[in-house]
Specification:
434 Repressor (Amino-terminal Domain), six-stranded parallel beta sheet, 3 domains, Rossmann fold, 334 residues, alpha/beta
C-alpha cells in the first residue's frame, strides 16, 4: 500500500496541515517540527504527488533548462552548477537537449516541457527574438548566452569581447604575432564566435599587429574539429606561432595534433582556449584558458529566474547580467 501524508503525520506526531506546509516549503515552521516531518518522510519512503501539488498551488518548484548539446563539456559543467544552485533555493531542474534544432527549441518554449516548470533557462541557437517573444507565454524566462541579445528578455552571459581581448593580449605579450583562431569565420561579429573574434581583433589593433583573415578558421566547436584545423594548417605550411581555440575542446584538439606532429607546445606554438572546463588543468601540458565566471553565471541566472517566479524581481525591463572572467595561465601558453 502506498504511503500517504496521513501516515507521515501520524509518525511525526503532527497535523496533516503541518506535513503539507513542510512539503510546500512554508517558511514559518519551527526547525524542530520541520525536521520531525522530514525524518518521517525518509523513514516511510513517502513520495509527494508533485502533479497534484502543482495543480493546487500553481507551482511545481521545477525549473526548465534547455541546452543544445549536453555532451559538450562546458554545457555539462554549467548544467551541474545550475542544478546545485537551484537545489539550494529549493528547486529542481528539468533538462532538455535541443540539438540546436528549431522544432526542439519551439517545443521547449510552448509545450508539455514548459507546462511542467515554473520558469525556463534557455539557450536558443536557431530562434529569433520575435519568435521567442511571441511564444514565451506568461512564465518567466532567462536567456543564457549570446545568440539573442534583446532588451525584452532577462539575459545572463559572459564578457566575451573583453575576455578574448585579454587572452589575445596575453599571447601577444609572450611574443606571438601569428595567432591562429579556430572556431570563427573572418566576417563573424555576433554570437560567441563573433564576439570573441571582435576581442581578438581589438587586441591586435592595440598592439599594432595586422589582422590576417587566413589565420581565422571556421569549424564546429569540437575536439576533433580543432585537430583537423591544425592538421590542415600544417599541411598547407601556413605559418603560425599560437592557436586560440574559441572553446577548450577546440584548443585541446589543436594541442593534441600539434604534439603528435612533433610541434613543441609552447616552445614552437602556444595554445589557449576559452571556458576553463575541468579537463583543461589536467591536460599535458595544462591548458591556458579563459575562466568565464561559470559559477557566477549559474548563481545569477538561477537567482534571477527564481526572483521572477516568486515576484521579488519586479522590473518590466529585461535584466542584463555579464559575469566576470579570469585568465588561467598554464603551461601551454605561459
Amino acid at each position: 500500500m502506498a504511503v500517504t501524508m496521513n501516515d507521515v503525520a501520524r509518525l511525526a506526531g503532527v497535523s496533516l496541515k503541518t506535513v503539507s506546509n513542510v512539503l510546500n516549503d512554508y517558511e514559518f515552521i519551527r526547525p524542530a517540527t520541520k525536521q520531525k516531518v522530514l525524518d518521517a518522510i525518509d523513514e516511510l519512503g513517502y513520495e509527494a504527488n508533485l502533479t497534484a501539488r502543482s495543480l493546487r498551488s500553481g507551482k511545481s518548484r521545477m525549473l526548465g533548462l534547455v541546452l543544445s548539446d549536453l555532451s559538450a563539456p562546458y554545457y555539462a559543467e554549467l548544467a551541474s552548477r545550475l542544478m546545485s544552485v537551484a537545489s539550494a533555493r529549493g528547486y529542481r531542474v528539468l533538462v532538455e537537449q535541443s540539438a540546436a534544432l528549431e522544432e526542439n527549441e519551439l517545443s521547449a518554449l510552448h509545450g508539455p516541457f514548459r507546462q511542467l516548470t515554473d520558469g525556463l533557462l534557455f539557450t536558443p541557437l536557431r530562434l529569433d527574438p520575435d519568435t521567442v517573444a511571441g511564444r514565451r507565454g506568461s512564465k518567466p524566462l532567462v536567456m543564457l548566452g549570446e545568440h539573442i541579445q534583446d532588451p525584452r528578455f532577462d539575459t545572463v552571459t559572459m564578457k566575451n569581447v573583453r575576455a578574448a581581448q585579454a587572452m589575445t593580449a596575453h599571447l601577444l605579450a609572450g611574443g606571438r604575432r601569428r595567432i591562429a583562431v579556430i572556431g570563427a569565420s573572418a566576417g563573424d561579429s555576433t554570437g560567441s564566435p563573433g564576439l570573441r573574434l571582435t576581442g581578438y581583433r581589438r587586441a591586435l589593433d592595440e598592439a599594432g599587429v595586422g589582422f590576417e583573415p587566413a589565420l581565422i578558421v571556421p569549424s564546429e566547436w569540437r575536439r576533433d574539429a580543432g585537430a583537423s584545423v591544425v592538421e590542415a594548417l600544417l599541411d598547407r605550411a601556413v605559418p603560425f606561432d599560437a592557436v586560440f581555440g574559441l572553446n577548450d575542446a577546440l584548443a585541446l584538439g589543436a594541442m593534441h595534433e600539434l604534439l603528435i606532429r612533433g610541434v613543441k607546445v609552447p616552445q614552437d606554438v602556444a595554445v589557449a582556449g576559452f571556458d576553463d572546463i575541468d579537463e583543461a588543468r589536467f591536460a599535458s601540458p595544462s591548458l591556458t584558458t579563459v575562466a568565464p565566471g561559470m559559477q557566477e553565471i549559474a548563481e545569477r541566472s538561477v537567482g534571477l529566474l527564481i526572483d521572477r517566479i516568486e515576484g521579488k524581481e519586479k522590473s518590466d525591463e529585461g535584466v542584463h547580467v555579464e559575469a566576470g572572467f579570469e585568465l588561467r595561465i598554464r603551461s601551454s601558453a605561459p
